[in-house]
Specification:
It is found in: Golgi apparatus. The protein is of the alpha+beta class. 25% of the residues lie in helices and 21% in strands. Strands 2-4-1-3 form a four-stranded mixed beta sheet.
């Protein structure tokens, strides 16, 4: 292990969630989409990180895998669409809840590889109304 790597993570824990990343169109909130409409994510980083215990992250459902036996029943996204109470951030809320559960039970949540190619941007004006 490299210097500074947390002692609590050196023995490893079961991975409950693997949150992959994406290239091309970034997953921005509506105001950022409107300000940076042409920005693209082209930087590939060959890494997988364990998200530290007590740290939340904005999970995205585009590139996600999870261990059904460990966390499956908790991996529930809220209903999406017009008139639904959560609508836009259903995957982020699921991620925050699942991360707290994983931290409590001593399971790992990882982010990084693998990457997918994201080529369909959502409508920033529709998103702005939802946000």
């Amino acid at each position: 292990f490299v210097r500074g790597y947390p002692f609590s993570l050196r023995e490893g824990v079961p991975t409950a969630v693997s949150h992959g990343l994406w290239l091309n169109i970034p997953d921005y909130d509506a105001p950022t989409q409107l300000v940076k409409p042409r920005e693209r994510n082209s930087r590939y980083v060959d890494a997988v990180l364990t998200i530290p215990k007590g740290t939340l992250f904005p999970m995205c459902g585009m590139n996600l895998a999870f261990n059904r036996e460990l966390i499956g029943p908790a991996m529930y996204f809220g209903l999406m669409g017009d008139g639904q109470p959560i609508g836009r951030y259903d995957d982020m809320w699921a991620g925050w809840c699942v991360k707290v559960i994983c931290d409590h039970l001593g399971w790992g949540v990882k982010t990084g590889l693998p990457y997918i190619w994201h080529s369909k941007a959502s409508n920033p004006f529709v998103n702005l109304k939802k946000e």
